[in-house]
Amino acid sequence: MKVKKFFVFMISFNVLFVVFQIVYGLILTSNHTPAVAGGTHGNAAAAVTFGQYSFLPLVFSNMAAGIAFLFSGKIISRS
Questions:
Q1: How far, in Å, CA of 16 to CA of 51, rounded?
Q2: pTM over 0.85
Q3: How many CB atoms lie within 10 A of CB 68?
Q4: What's the domain of life for this entry (predicted)?
Q5: In whole angstroms, what separates CA 44 from the centre of its chain?
Q6: Which phi and psi angles does 65 have, rounded to 5°?
Q7: Which of 31, 48, 62, 64 could make an SS bond with 17 (beta carbons 3.0 to 4.6 A apart)?
């Protein structure tokens, strides 16, 4: 019985995590404004800048784990 509960939790967690990551990616893509290099017609800037670290993926994964735990409890109680 515990193995079934574990597999239901892991599957629902993974599905919800993927869904939240896709939504998070869509939000980031829709809010992205590309930086246009002003005045340079030749080579692009040599320095590569990376984005800042965000805790939002951690928040989304914790939300997915919590919702998966609730779903797994409801699915197990029905069967």
A1: 25
A2: no
A3: 20
A4: Bacteria
A5: 31
A6: -65, -40
A7: 64
Smallest Cα–Cα separation from 16: which of 79, 71, 56, 75?
71
**The two structure tokens encoding residue 3:** 């193995």
DSSP state at residue 31 = T
Token code pair at residue 12: 């629902």
Evaluate whether 65 touches 13 at the Cβ level (below 8 Å).
yes
Residue 44 is predicted with a pLDDT of 55
Q: Which residue has the tokens 């239901």?
A: 8
- Where does residue 64 rank: exposed (0-12), middle (13-18), buried (19+ CB within 10 A)? buried
Q: Note the pLDDT of residue 39.
A: 53
Q: Can you tell me whether residue 62 is helix, strand or coil?
A: helix
Tokens of 31: 């809010």
